[in-house]
Each structure stands twice: as C-alpha cells, then as structure tokens.
Amino acid sequence: MPLSKLSLSPAGRTWLPLRLLLAVGVSVAVALLLVLVLYLTDLGLSVWERLARAPTAFWVIYLLILGGLSAGGAYGVWRVLQWGRPAGRSRAAVPAKPPDETSLRERLERSAAAGVPVDPIRRELEELQRRRATGEIIVAIFGEISAGKSSMIGALLPGTDIAVDVRGGTTRQVAYYTWTSPAGDRLVLADLPGLNEAGGLLDQTARDEALRAHVVIYVCEGDLTRDQYQSLRTLVELGSPLIVALNKIDRFAEGELDLVRERLAERVGEQIEVAPVQCGGREEVTRIYHDGREETTWRERQPRIDDLRRALQRYLDTDPQVLDALRDTSVFVLAQQKLDVAVAEHRRGKADAIIQGYSRKAIFGALAAVSPGTDILIQGYLGINLIKELCTLYEVPVREMDMQRFLDLAGNQIKRSINLLLALVGNVFKAFPGMGTVVGGMMHAVVYGLIFESLGKAVARSLESRGDLVSGPALRMFEDNLSEDLEARARRLAQLVWTQQRSGEGAGTATG
Questions:
Q1: Which 8-state DSSP code applies to residue 246?
Q2: Does some domain include residue 326?
Q3: Which residues, 6+ apart, have CB-to-CB distance to 112 below 8 Å?
Q4: Range of weakest confidence among 207-216, 283-292, 299-308, 481-490
Q5: Structure pTM?
Q6: Who has the most CB within 10 Å: 231, 294, 373, 405?
Q7: Cβ-contact 459, 474 below 8 angstroms
Q8: Which three-class secondary structure state does DSSP give residue 196?
C-alpha cells in the first residue's frame, strides 16, 4: 500500500500525543534523578572533606547525634508498627511464675473477704503442713486404668495384700504403702486410681495426689496416647521428678523396646527417665512331654523392676530440700488452680445476679417512663452502671469514655435488631388476654430486658476470658446472645412484665 494511503485510526490519533507526553515525562524524571544523585554526591564529598579537617571531639559529638537520631527513628517506626495492637499483650506467651506461699495466702484471704468459698484450698495447705511435719517422701504411682500400677507396688512390696484385677478399676481411692528402698530410704507409695476409671470421676483425685507427691512414677504400656501425654504435661512443666515406667515389656522384642523407649523420651522429654519394667503377674506355659502329650499350666511371672529402682534411687539421692521445694511448688500450683476455679464460679454467680438485677431495673424503668424519651435516659444510665459493677466485680479498671463508646457501638447493633425483637415480643404477648392499649410500652420493656441480659453476659464473658472489656469480641458475643434462646427468654420476661402491670393496675383500682 502506498504511504500516502496510510492513516491512523481515531484511537491511534488519540494515543499518539499521550505516548509522546509519557516519553517526555520519563526523560525529565531520569534527568532530575541524575541531577539529584550528582547533588547528593557533591554534598556528601563536601561534608566528608570538612569532617576530615574537624577535631576528634567534634567527630565524637557528631557520631553521638547521628546515633541518637537513628535510634529515635527506629523507635518511631516500631511504635507505628505496634499501633492498634492491644497494650500489654505479646504474641509469644510468657510462662506464668509459679506462686509462692506468701502471695497465695494473701490472695486466699482477699478472696475469703470477698465471699469466695475457700475452705477446700485451706485444707490443701493444711495437708501440706502436715506432710512437711512428718517428713515423709511420697512416691505416687500414676497412669491409665489397667496399666499395672497396683501390680508394680506388689512387685516393689512382695507379700503385700494388694487387690489386682485383670478387668481393671480395682483402685477406687488413694491407698498408701510404706516401702524401704534397697538403699535404706523409707518411702510412702501412693497407689492412685487409674485415669478414665469410673467414667473419669476419679481422674481429678488422681491428678491432685500426683501433684502432692515428691516423685511421680507414670505407668504406661507403650507409646503415649494424646490423653496420656496431656496428663503428663503439668508435671513436666512444673519440673516435678518424674519416671515413665514402660510396663509389660515381655510383649516387645529387643529392637521394638528400644524404639518405644526412644519415642517416649522424644515425646515426654529426654530429661525424663524411661524405665522398662515387668511387674510380675501370671503367664500361661505349655509343657510338651516326650510321648507327645501337652499340658497347659499357669506360673508366676518373675518381676523385672531393677531399672525402675535405680531411676527412683537417683532421685532419692538428691538433696531432700530440693525434693521438698519441688513438691511445695506443685501443691501451690494445685491450690492456685482450685482458688482460680472457686473465684471464677463465685464471680459468675455474682455477675448473673447483677445482670438479672439490671434487666429488671431496665424493664421497670421502661414501664415507669413518664414521657417519651425518658426511658432512653434511664437505660443509658443503667447501662453505664451495669458495666461499672461488672468491672468492679472482675477487678478491671475501665474508663467511662470507653464504656460509653462500647454502649454507643452496642446501640448501633440494637438498631438493626429492634424491629425483629419487637415483632417477636408482640407474638409472645398474644398469649396474654386483655392486653388493651398498653401493649406498646410493655413490649419495649421486655425488649429492654432482653437487651440488658445479652449485654451483661457479653461484658462479663469478655472480662472473665480476656481480663479487659475488648469491644470487638464483646460486641460479637452481644449479637450472639441477643438471638440465643430468644423466644423462651422473651416469654419469661413477658410474664414478669404482665405480672407487674396487673399488680400495678390492681393497686391503682384499690386506691381509687
């Protein structure tokens, strides 16, 4: 085609100036960048020449200023990166320091003064004092049901009458036996109920007694299950002297036994003793005579517990004060756990009473409102005081502006749900005859009761689980609580409102 016939399309004619402008812009930017590089190079060389002629003192001051500015800049960047993260919370969990006796007793007295039932914790500390006075070294035999705990004590104490049943579950309570080791140490062996015995009802009894012991022998028959591994974690983390006794080793070939021991040491920790044992019992023996006759008999299996005795003796040869200190720490942790449970249960009961009290106040405030809008003022005042009382109960300081902001956010959620709540309450009230023209106010009163119940439970749960009023999770819990068991709660509150309204009308008629 001749050149004279070539022509650009309208789109091509539009894009041509843009491409030219882009090329010019890139060229100008490159030129400016080169000028900037040359200027910075010249400036840097000039500064270097001047510094080279400066005295040493000036150099020192100059480097200190540069170092301070660099550190300040780095800190500023770090603060920007940390912006918005909750204060005082690190992604890496910091292990809690084990409690000491003084702080534990102080907290115990504060809890008792607040009305927390602390008698079980006091008895725990009294039992520790008793054991300290006797100077007993207690070795707990701990493990799953039917793992061979009672048989192990029978092997350590031959001739002792100990109930052993192949069905398992014969140890229904803690039994204590006195034993003198080959080295002459006098010990008390505690035979604990097996884990998962009696449907797990005795598990806590066994775990508590294991924490009270100086040394724990955990009996198992092979590699640990998930539940068995979890049972050992508390003891391992506290540093309690622990021996894993691998029982019934006659079932393993030599190579298999080594693999199981390595696996146990890997899962529990290489610092934990793993002792293979055979706790006796009976075995079936078939005798074949020269004439071909076979005779099956039972004979007592010879116990093999030498490795266990040596491992236990190594612990007993350590400083007795070290064993006592480790035992005391375990007991303090046990007492603290019990106190935590008691405090949590006490607070839940008190929180529920506070929430129900404010729900009733919200209902009666709505019924008593004398003019439009006054019920809103009443509910706002009650909402602030509800959160204040819950924060006081959980010993969490919260600023009033944070409480108000949380209530404002909760109010936005309520606006989205109010029509659904009113419709539901209206349907509930259809079951009450003779409502008349007062239904509107009574419906709002029930809705307020539902809102305060849901709000209070969300705040209490946030304070208990997080130790703070965290708006995001608390608002999500509030939204979930609003819809939880809604119809049954609405009926209960509607009955309360109906009874209150009828009693008020009855009093008015009697007065008239």
A1: E
A2: no
A3: 118
A4: 283-292
A5: 0.68
A6: 231
A7: yes
A8: coil
